[in-house]
Amino acid sequence: MSWTPGDDAIHVVRPPAPGAAGGTYRVFAETLRGLKTTFARVAEGVHTIQYPEQKVPVYPRFRGRHRLHKFEDTGLEKCVGCSLCAAACPADCIRVVAAENTPEHRVSAGERYAAVYEINLSRCIFCGYCEVACPFDAITMGNDYEMSDYQRSDLIFTKEMLLAEPVERTPLRAEGE
Amino acid sequence: MNTLSGPLAEVSYYEPWWIQIIKAIVIFAVILQVQPIIIVGERKGLGRFQGRYGPNRVGPFGLATPLADIIKLATKEQFRPDSSIGWMFALAPVISCVTAIGAIAIIPFGDTQDIFGTPVGLYGIDVSIGPLFVFAMGAVAFYGIMLGGFSSGSKYSFLGSMRAAAQLISYEVSQGLALVGVVMTAQTLSLTEIVHAQQGMWYIVPQFAGFLIFLTASFAETNRAPFDLVEADAELVGGYFTEYGGTRFTAYLFAEYINMCVVSLICVTVFLGGWLLPFGIHPPGWVDPFIVLGKAGLFIFFFIWVRATLPRLRYDQLMSFGWKILLPLATLNTLVTAIIIVATD
């Protein structure tokens, strides 16, 4: 039961038949058309963004370098050293050592605080699971992506570095842009 | 025009020897200084054709990029493969460079000028065999490429040089035949005389077919895209200069760009009326070289434009195009020109 389609049902696209004069003309015309196409690119101008000077703004939900946060009113750290971010981290790049808050030395709002909080950014895959795991929104993904350094050890970010404002703010896209 | 008679009458030997030396140095210096401009122009031009800036970091607008390139290349280690043939390997780039620069000697940059009471022709030497000299130099230039590829002792280089041999020989035939039409029309082989003969009309008009054939063959002669099968970086790494590095590679690079200059200048001289301007404009004599260089710049821009546009041909396409289309067209052009000249004489 084979179906033989009629001539009208078959869509045929054939290249033009090769021919001496016609072929030569075609090659010539196509060449000129190509030249026109490339020259139109010159007229169109340059699309390059000159990166170190010009930066493309990132989206608000862009996952860049982590930030640790403090309460704005009391100035206490939000992190309570629960290590849930370290447990959630698939790259195993977060190290948290917790210590007890004392009335004389109160660092965070909870019972304990993170005495050591290190993120090894050379291992981090910027998946954002730590942000999701954190019960107090103490760690969020920031917008900075320029983190290259000369030493691997310089890429281990300590708590002070993560708490600090970035030196240069990454341009952020406005709402709806 | 000249004071001698006899077999040397065609040659401008009336100039003192020191003028010859000064001219040689000036032409050599100017042409060599033009190369970095072409190189940076090509890289920036290709960038524009592809919607990007091209090199713009070194110096103002990236104009010092060739300087940085040269410093990088010159400070590189000189190396060669174990299997290479030493003296030949070192000699080949020199041949390429020498022949490319040698061909510039006969390009007329202007008419005979009176400089401080001394008549000076604004050209290296006005030989009576103009185009033949260029083709002779081009033929010797094959050795630079051939020996370079052969003596490298590498298969990519060898393949590249074999391709070069086939390609250059097959396209030189068409290139030569395209010029025959002009030579017949001008009734002379001297390039300055050919320019003088274009006083009324540039040869691009009556010899338009010859012009197109010459231009197309020139792309193959200079190993430029779309005929750069000799280098074919996608399949042959670098072709004949795969094994070259440092200053020897620089020599090949310069030879390629100087060849581009030579072809452009020949094209200007033979088809675009050399230093002549249309509409009866007669600028003072010192403008002539700038006119020639400006016209050559148009061709060099065209070379860059075509490189940005056309993809590289397949080897069999190259051969069939050269032998089946270009050569018959060139022959036909010569025949028709000859018939017209005889008929109107």
From TrEMBL, chain A:
<keyword id="KW-1278">Translocase</keyword>
<feature type="binding site">
    <location>
        <position position="85"/>
    </location>
    <ligand>
        <name>[4Fe-4S] cluster 1</name>
    </ligand>
</feature>
<feature type="binding site">
    <location>
        <position position="130"/>
    </location>
    <ligand>
        <name>[4Fe-4S] cluster 2</name>
    </ligand>
</feature>
<feature type="binding site">
    <location>
        <position position="124"/>
    </location>
    <ligand>
        <name>[4Fe-4S] cluster 2</name>
    </ligand>
</feature>
<comment type="subunit">
    <text>NDH-1 is composed of 14 different subunits. Subunits NuoA, H, J, K, L, M, N constitute the membrane sector of the complex.</text>
</comment>
<keyword id="KW-0830">Ubiquinone</keyword>
<feature type="domain" description="4Fe-4S ferredoxin-type">
    <location>
        <begin position="70"/>
        <end position="99"/>
    </location>
</feature>
<dbReference type="InterPro" id="IPR017900">
    <property type="entry name" value="4Fe4S_Fe_S_CS"/>
</dbReference>
<comment type="similarity">
    <text>Belongs to the complex I 23 kDa subunit family.</text>
</comment>
<feature type="binding site">
    <location>
        <position position="79"/>
    </location>
    <ligand>
        <name>[4Fe-4S] cluster 1</name>
    </ligand>
</feature>
<comment type="function">
    <text>NDH-1 shuttles electrons from NADH, via FMN and iron-sulfur (Fe-S) centers, to quinones in the respiratory chain. The immediate electron acceptor for the enzyme in this species is believed to be ubiquinone. Couples the redox reaction to proton translocation (for every two electrons transferred, four hydrogen ions are translocated across the cytoplasmic membrane), and thus conserves the redox energy in a proton gradient.</text>
</comment>
<keyword id="KW-0004">4Fe-4S</keyword>
<keyword id="KW-0472">Membrane</keyword>
<feature type="binding site">
    <location>
        <position position="134"/>
    </location>
    <ligand>
        <name>[4Fe-4S] cluster 1</name>
    </ligand>
</feature>
<keyword id="KW-0560">Oxidoreductase</keyword>
<keyword id="KW-0411">Iron-sulfur</keyword>
<dbReference type="InterPro" id="IPR010226">
    <property type="entry name" value="NADH_quinone_OxRdtase_chainI"/>
</dbReference>
<keyword id="KW-0520">NAD</keyword>
<feature type="binding site">
    <location>
        <position position="127"/>
    </location>
    <ligand>
        <name>[4Fe-4S] cluster 2</name>
    </ligand>
</feature>
<dbReference type="Pfam" id="PF12838">
    <property type="entry name" value="Fer4_7"/>
</dbReference>
<feature type="binding site">
    <location>
        <position position="82"/>
    </location>
    <ligand>
        <name>[4Fe-4S] cluster 1</name>
    </ligand>
</feature>
<dbReference type="InterPro" id="IPR017896">
    <property type="entry name" value="4Fe4S_Fe-S-bd"/>
</dbReference>
Automatic annotation (TrEMBL), chain B:
<keyword id="KW-0520">NAD</keyword>
<keyword id="KW-0560">Oxidoreductase</keyword>
<comment type="similarity">
    <text>Belongs to the complex I subunit 1 family.</text>
</comment>
<dbReference type="Pfam" id="PF00146">
    <property type="entry name" value="NADHdh"/>
</dbReference>
<feature type="transmembrane region" description="Helical">
    <location>
        <begin position="257"/>
        <end position="277"/>
    </location>
</feature>
<feature type="transmembrane region" description="Helical">
    <location>
        <begin position="85"/>
        <end position="109"/>
    </location>
</feature>
<feature type="transmembrane region" description="Helical">
    <location>
        <begin position="289"/>
        <end position="310"/>
    </location>
</feature>
<feature type="transmembrane region" description="Helical">
    <location>
        <begin position="17"/>
        <end position="40"/>
    </location>
</feature>
<keyword id="KW-0812">Transmembrane</keyword>
<keyword id="KW-1278">Translocase</keyword>
<comment type="function">
    <text>NDH-1 shuttles electrons from NADH, via FMN and iron-sulfur (Fe-S) centers, to quinones in the respiratory chain. The immediate electron acceptor for the enzyme in this species is believed to be ubiquinone. Couples the redox reaction to proton translocation (for every two electrons transferred, four hydrogen ions are translocated across the cytoplasmic membrane), and thus conserves the redox energy in a proton gradient. This subunit may bind ubiquinone.</text>
</comment>
<feature type="transmembrane region" description="Helical">
    <location>
        <begin position="322"/>
        <end position="343"/>
    </location>
</feature>
<keyword id="KW-0874">Quinone</keyword>
<feature type="transmembrane region" description="Helical">
    <location>
        <begin position="201"/>
        <end position="220"/>
    </location>
</feature>
<keyword id="KW-0830">Ubiquinone</keyword>
<comment type="subunit">
    <text>NDH-1 is composed of 14 different subunits. Subunits NuoA, H, J, K, L, M, N constitute the membrane sector of the complex.</text>
</comment>
<keyword id="KW-0472">Membrane</keyword>
<keyword id="KW-1133">Transmembrane helix</keyword>
<keyword id="KW-1003">Cell membrane</keyword>
<dbReference type="GO" id="GO:0016491">
    <property type="term" value="F:oxidoreductase activity"/>
</dbReference>
<protein>
    <recommendedName>
        <fullName>NADH-quinone oxidoreductase subunit H</fullName>
        <ecNumber>7.1.1.-</ecNumber>
    </recommendedName>
</protein>
<feature type="transmembrane region" description="Helical">
    <location>
        <begin position="129"/>
        <end position="147"/>
    </location>
</feature>
